[in-house]
């Protein structure tokens, strides 16, 4: 339990953390990786290079300072981060390392303004916050392990099948090497894939949405091949070009708090995606078709062109199984306009055709696409509790996304 004095001191640092947060977290990661290079086996190097991880942590630290007297307000964010941590293999022994270097970074950036009293208060606060994360994550580890066919950490899986879905997306069917079943998951969740790439000093972990309904024999992920110059490209290019049927990769148990609400079996749902954001939507759509085909469902997908659009035949086949299903394909630059319902970008006219104020919406895609869709859904009159969305990578503040890019589908 934190003393009132500690709470007051930590809250008093919120304004400076709002301004200096990203500078502090950038110093934090630099110093921590210099002292503990083994942690580079866990952290996503691409998010580090793009600055997304630093910004996400800065936002978390600022929120912790602002709400240190009401930590329950942070619980939704804690659970979302904890899902990521559990799927990456973050353990209790990592938290003291993080605490040491976070406090050191605060002192380094703020200098004399970070008095011993402030550092002491933050040390106490960090201990409480870390304890919350450790407890929540341990519950998640136990839950993952206790499921039928569940497991706690990474487990070797064999690539049983590799299927090209579009010019840029390939699906990988992953079966447990030990011949066991795979644990059940909620449609929309993801797994972590850990690979060792020749010539790379560290292992690399990426999180990929499960792109099909639950099948006890395998997981399916569908990976977009990024450009090699993109930091994310190192893993996706390796998977596309080097990982073949019969290859072995390490996989975590499914995780994530973005998934289809299956309790509502009658209310209309809209699955809205841009680019590779289609992957969790495929899991949701297939689940609806198999388990609640009476549920009204709209599947709205935006792509640059026909070549990069994945799963068209699969979606049309699933629509045939639904009693009241609608598919809408939007292509930014179609070579043949007859192959899409709309050309250009997602807009209010399109969304209003398929969504009303009672529709439960799920949104996934590039941040500019999500910002455009979420803003438009709110304009239509959809309440916030009807809008569910998923970031690929660390959470972002959508208000910071470039307005000039906001309508792009991918």
Automatic annotation (TrEMBL):
Site positions (Involved in heme-bound ligand stabilization and O-O bond activation): 29
GO molecular function: nitric oxide dioxygenase NAD(P)H activity
Ranges of residues in domain FAD-binding FR-type: 152-261
List of residues binding NADP(+): 275-280
The entry's keywords: Detoxification, FAD, Flavoprotein, Heme, Iron, Metal-binding, NAD, NADP, Oxidoreductase, Oxygen transport, Transport
Gene3D superfamilies: Globins (1.10.490.10), Nucleotide-binding domain of ferredoxin-NADP reductase (FNR) module (3.40.50.80), Translation factors (2.40.30.10)
Domain Globin: 1-138
EC numbers, comma separated: 1.14.12.17
Domain notes: Consists of two distinct domains; an N-terminal heme-containing oxygen-binding domain and a C-terminal reductase domain with binding sites for FAD and NAD(P)H.
Protein's UniProt name: Flavohemoprotein
Gene responsible for this protein: hmpA
């Amino acid at each position: 339990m934190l003393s009132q004095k500690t709470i007051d001191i930590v809250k008093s640092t919120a304004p400076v953390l709002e301004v200096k947060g990203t500078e502090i977290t950038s110093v934090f990661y630099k110093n921590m990786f210099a002292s503990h290079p083994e942690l580079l086996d866990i952290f996503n190097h691409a998010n580090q290079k793009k600055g997304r991880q630093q910004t996400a942590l800065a936002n978390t630290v600022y929120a912790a300072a602002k709400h240190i007297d009401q930590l329950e307000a942070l619980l939704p964010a804690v659970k979302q981060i904890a899902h990521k941590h559990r799927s990456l293999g973050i353990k209790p022994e990592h938290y003291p390392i993080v605490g040491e270097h976070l406090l050191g970074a605060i002192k380094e950036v703020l200098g004399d303004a970070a008095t011993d009293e402030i550092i002491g208060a933050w040390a106490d606060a960090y201990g409480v916050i870390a304890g919350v994360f450790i407890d929540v994550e341990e519950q998640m580890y136990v839950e993952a392990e206790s499921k039928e066919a569940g497991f706690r950490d990474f487990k070797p899986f064999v690539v049983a099948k590799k299927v090209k879905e579009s010019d840029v997306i390939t699906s990988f069917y992953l079966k447990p090497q030990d011949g066991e079943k795979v644990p059940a998951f909620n449609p929309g969740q993801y797994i972590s894939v850990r690979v060792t790439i020749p010539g790379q000093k560290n292992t690399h972990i990426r999180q990929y949405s499960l792109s099909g309904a639950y099948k006890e024999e395998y997981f399916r992920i569908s990976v977009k091949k990024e450009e090699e110059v993109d930091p994310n490209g190192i893993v996706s290019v390796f998977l596309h070009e080097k990982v073949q049927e019969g290859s072995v990769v390490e996989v975590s148990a499914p995780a994530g708090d973005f998934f289809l609400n299956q309790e509502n079996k009658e209310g209309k749902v809209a699955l809205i995606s841009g680019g590779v954001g289609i992957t969790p939507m495929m899991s949701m759509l297939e689940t609806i078709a198999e388990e609640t085909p009476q549920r009204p469902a709209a599947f709205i997908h935006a792509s640059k062109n026909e070549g990069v659009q994945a799963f068209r035949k699969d979606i049309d086949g699933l629509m045939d199984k639904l009693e009241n299903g609608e598919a809408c394909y939007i292509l930014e630059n179609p070579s043949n306009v007859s192959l899409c319902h709309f050309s250009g970008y997602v807009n209010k006219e399109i969304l209003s055709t398929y969504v009303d104020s009672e529709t439960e919406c799920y949104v996934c895609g590039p941040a500019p696409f999500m910002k455009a869709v979420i803003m438009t859904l709110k304009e239509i009159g959809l309440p916030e509790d009807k809008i569910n969305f998923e970031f690929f990578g660390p959470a972002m503040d959508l208000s910071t996304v470039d307005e000039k890019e906001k309508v792009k589908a991918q």
